[in-house]
From TrEMBL:
Keyword check for Membrane: yes
Keyword Transmembrane helix set for record: yes
Organism domain of life: Bacteria
Upper taxonomic lineage: Bacteria, Pseudomonadati, Bacteroidota, Flavobacteriia, Flavobacteriales
Transmembrane stretches, start-end: 7-29
Name of this protein: DUF4760 domain-containing protein
Annotated keywords: Membrane, Transmembrane, Transmembrane helix
Length: 167
């Protein structure tokens, strides 16, 4: 009798272990599915924000001219235009900061980040971003984002210096 109970106990343990393994596989699949859904939702929100920013910045010829000038040569603007351009540009930078932080928090898939990384890096390498870095307003952006930007700008300057020295 004792042997039969021990056999039933062993069978119960095996069934219990299989149930735990099956449960863990199911939970893993659910987490993976939820991660994809979260990433898709995040990307959708970012795309909607992209569209909103583009429409806002292109809403008038004057705003378009000011933001375009601020990006490449902020010193070419009058003081009033510079202030206006700075605020428009800061909105753009807040957007690329969000992209950067979403990627850092694994909310973007690798594919979605790669499609946006050139936008982020391109904005950070502009003279307009250099003006933002020199202003006291840089404190209002995430410190890790600013460190990334400064590091990227240093690498880019080094590449430019290396290129000029070779030629």
């Amino acid at each position: 009798m004792k042997e039969i109970l021990e056999e039933y106990a062993l069978i119960a343990e095996i069934i219990s272990a299989l149930a735990v393994i099956i449960s863990l596989i199911f939970v893993g699949l659910q987490i993976r599915s939820n991660t994809k859904a979260t990433q898709a939702s995040t990307f959708h929100e970012i795309a909607a924000l992209d569209i909103h920013i583009l429409l806002s910045l292109g809403s008038s010829k004057e705003s378009s001219r000011i933001i375009s000038t601020f990006r490449v040569n902020p010193d070419a603007l009058t003081e009033e235009e510079h202030n206006h351009g700075f605020h428009l540009f800061a909105a753009e930078i807040r957007h690329v900061e969000n992209l950067f932080l979403q990627n850092e928090n694994k909310m973007l898939s690798k594919k979605n980040w790669e499609s946006r990384k050139s936008l982020v890096d391109g904005m950070l390498l502009t003279p307009g971003f250099g003006a933002l870095l020199e202003s006291p307003n840089k404190q209002f952006f995430d410190g890790y984002f600013i460190q990334y930007a400064e590091s990227l700008r240093k690498k880019h300057l080094k590449k430019d210096d290396d290129f000029e020295n070779k030629n």
